[in-house]
Amino acid sequence: MTLPIMKNYINGEWVESNGTIMGDVTNPATGKKIAQVAFGTKDDVEKAVQAAREAFLQWRQTPPLTRARYIFRIKDVFEENFEEIAQTLTMENGKIIDEARAEVRRMIENVEHATAATTLMSGYTLEDIATGIDCAGHRQPMGVFAGIVPYNFPAMVPWWFLPYAIVSGNTYVLKPSEQVPMTQTKIFECLDEVGLPDGVVNMVHGSKDVVNAILDHPDIQGVSFVGSTATAKHIYKRCGETGKRVQALGGAKNVVGIMPDANLDAGLPSLVTSFYGVAGQRCLAGSILAPVGNIADKLVDKFLALAKKIKVGDGLSDQTAMGPMAGKIHLDRVLGYIEKGIEEGATLVLDGRDCKVEGYPDGYFVGPTIFDNVTPDMTIAREEIFGPVVCVVRCKTIEDLIQLVNTRDFANAACLYTDSGAAARKFKYEALPSMVGINIGIAAPMSFFPFGGSGNSMFGDIKAHGQEIFHFFTDTKVVIERWF
């Protein structure tokens, strides 16, 4: 059977890439190829940027309210295709269908938030800054922006950026992950129905060549990226060298602390979801479970009991609670970390290495895994595993917990379960990560609050979505006026 080949979307048309190297798209549950994608070239990027540049002037002059009406239409067409987008996402990424639906819902929420551009993009004025002189600040679009996005949330993450860029009057070039190109292809098919002016949104599939062409292109004003810390650093540096704005969101090593007074029975469901949701493949996933004081044994026993009940399987089955890893390379990475934990002397309480799913012998499955007695200096306590592996680091005091959080060489998210307001205040005041959850295992902001960490989890000044995103996609022109 001939596999479908993903095409680029440039200047309102579906076009084949100039690239001759083809990548395979695989269903992680079956291990079988389901599509192919051409790895684009510098020339593909050039065509997309040219289309975006030529569309910019007319789009910029389109009134913000009119641009927002396009965004409303995008929201409607996404709602109409909601289930098909979610099904496509699960098929190529592996996450369970309910997680895919939740992701598509978060994507749509960003579209809804972007419709507020007529308020959030507004500037400000002050009369009589001196006698007879007035001053105004106007937020103006800047031109072509680009997004380079990851495999773990192929629907949602691009829409942390794209709707805000275009509703602000800019035009856009998106590079989806070459591992999961089908989801955004389906989404752009929906966009094609909306009737945006040609060139306002463009998509180029590919790998490193496309990324580097975006980073080096003189007509791209700014780049939004989500991925590993190593790549985020590279993109931050390259954008700095070429004078681009940049928001580069990197990796994480999120600690979830449990105080002795925590309500375990109420908190455990969200705790388990924190670590095992999306098979641990999200930047807000719990990575280190850190019981404080005498709650440790009780917590580990209760957590283990629930982890053992998680059914692993094909994400399209309603009976599945955790899907496969998104690819073979990710499976091998996680298995390598489990071996490393054993080698370093951690206690393997629950072993997910030999996870078998009936009817899916070639799927990329790893079962829920738990290490106890992990020390902060171990590799599995320091590096991002990005899989369903829980590392239990026992802390004596809340001070030890905060020290653990602040020495992971990341600062994305941290969570605390407690019934003490004093403990909660101390934690959120002293912990360095920019996203903090209290009695919540996943500190995921809604679209109207900013998303992004600090330290080695975030490079750049302005985070994803929220109100601040309009600052990233506009330049504030200050006009000082006096009339005689």
Describe this structure in words.
- The protein has 484 residues and is an alpha/beta fold.
- It has two domains: 5-251 and 452-482, 3-Layer(aba) Sandwich (Aldehyde Dehydrogenase, Chain A, domain 1), CATH 3.40.605.10; 254-409 and 413-438, 3-Layer(aba) Sandwich (Aldehyde Dehydrogenase, Chain A, domain 2).
- The protein has 16 helices and 21 strands.
- Strand 4 (22-27) and strand 5 form a beta hairpin.
- Helix 2 (64-80) packs antiparallel against helix 4 (97-114).
- It is globular, with a radius of gyration of 23 Å.
- The mean pLDDT is 97.
What's the layout of helices and strands?
Blueprint: E1 5-6, E2 8-10, E3 13-15, E4 22-27, E5 32-38, H1 42-61, H2 64-80, H3 82-93, H4 97-114, H5 117-120, E6 124-130, E7 133-141, E8 144-148, H6 162-167, E9 171-175, H7 181-194, E10 201-203, H8 208-216, E11 220-226, H9 229-241, E12 245-249, E13 254-258, H10 264-276, E14 286-291, H11 296-308, H12 328-344, E15 347-350, E16 369-372, H13 379-382, E17 389-392, H14 398-406, E18 413-417, H15 421-430, E19 435-438, E20 458-460, H16 469-472, E21 474-482
Parallel strand pairs: 1-5, 8-9, 8-11, 9-10, 11-12, 13-14, 13-18, 14-17, 16-17, 18-19
Antiparallel strand pairs: 2-3, 4-5, 6-7, 7-21, 12-20, 15-16
Helical stretch tally? 16
Q: What is the number of domains?
A: 2
Please give the radius of gyration in angstroms.
Answer: 23 Å
Q: What is the spatial order of strands in the main beta sheet?
A: 15-16-17-14-13-18-19
The CATH topology of the largest domain comes to: Aldehyde Dehydrogenase, Chain A, domain 1
Total DSSP E strands: 21
pLDDT average, as an integer?
97
Assess the beta-strand content as a share of residues: 15-25%
Provide the low-confidence segments as ranges. Answer: none
CATH architecture of the largest domain, by name, is 3-Layer(aba) Sandwich
